[in-house]
Amino acid sequence: MARWENEDLTGLNLPDPETVSRVYLDKNGNETEDENIAFAKISQSGEKNNYYIKYNRGEIIDPHHTDSNGRKNSNATFRKVNKKTFDTYNKFLKTKNLLYFTMARRMVMEQI
Description:
The protein is of the alpha+beta class. The protein has two helices and six strands; from the N terminus they run ββββββαα. Strands 1, 2, 3, 4, 5 and 6 form a six-stranded antiparallel beta sheet that branches.
């Protein structure tokens, strides 16, 4: 065993770790527990929210059309976006209106 494994750290006044809760959204914009079927997520720590959209091949995923099986692709990852982009993408998931998907794609390109 290493020396630091046996040391008592109670006198160091270390803060408690922040709890992070995650909300996943499926292809219809509904909350889900399963990260594998999610296309968007919100990570909440304290009062701060971080917004993420699932990407594949450098583009956000369209779960209703060409990338409908994107959730099964192991290359798909979540990337951080701003709230306005997230809200537009979430509106696309709920309404299936391609106008919102195009707007979200353009907002992502403007962030870079």
